[in-house]
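Continuing the series of single-chain predictions for the mutant panel. This is the parent chain; the variants come on the following pages.
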Amino acid sequence: MRVTESTKLSTLRKLNIKATIFIIAIIVGLTSVSAQTIKADSLAKTKITVKKQKSKLWGRKYVTGFKISWKKVKGAKGYKVYAYGVASKKWRCIKTTKKTSYTLTRLVSKSKAKIKVRAYKNNPDGSTTYGRFSKSVNCKAKDDVYKASKNGKLKKSFHDRYAAEQAFVLQNKMRRDAGVSNIIWSERLYELCEIRAKQVSKDFSHDKFRSASENYLKQFGINDRYVYHREEDGNYGLSIIGTENIADGQMNFKSAMQSWKNSKPHYGNLKNKDHVSGAIACYMSKDTGICWVAIFSDVDVDKTVDELKAK
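Parent structure:
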């Protein structure tokens, strides 16, 4: 069989095209495998461990934190640590780290935390690939958990959201026991609770509650503490930020809630059937100890604020 020059050139072109397609296929294949590395080597089947970190004070050891560790994931840029909120009923990211461990600390007595971890990597196109979550682990503080100075005092004040959400769950149980419905957790009211808890630790009174509430709403462009509805007999207002309960000296969420239940005005506020949403904050001050703040609203605050901002 005779092969002309044109036939040779045609054959070479076909071979070059096939070779190019083959090379592209290899590149695409490699890219695809790289993007799936974390998913293949995820933490889903890796058991993460919890170890109590201890320090010595006045001749006895005490827990300063819970060290949560996991195995290194091939191809990962770093890891995200998540905690579950028993009142908000959501997982929130509490730490992004390149290390294969995270130490959970600054908890008050009887606090419980549920933690899980997942790996991540940043892709060339700007997107992020996440591995599957690890199984969750539980950390329970028998006593206060934090690093103390040589004189036994707390080095830095802190909020304990775990204790706060546990208190909120117990508060809803008390409402149900009193024959009224649950209220829903509000992230925005929690932010205000944190602000008020710091204030209350320095000035144990309701004096700054109104001004703190008004200033908080102003950041969303809201200048009125009420949202108004029209009925046949006119308009009526529902409190966006209504009332608060405060307490100090109670060492855990159970004793804080019991103190409010034992007080007639506080308990009346707690079980008010008009309340729709709320939040609680727990603040450990290095100067004055633990204080608790609960704030209530007659509306779904997060939804209402979003609607008012959109107008």
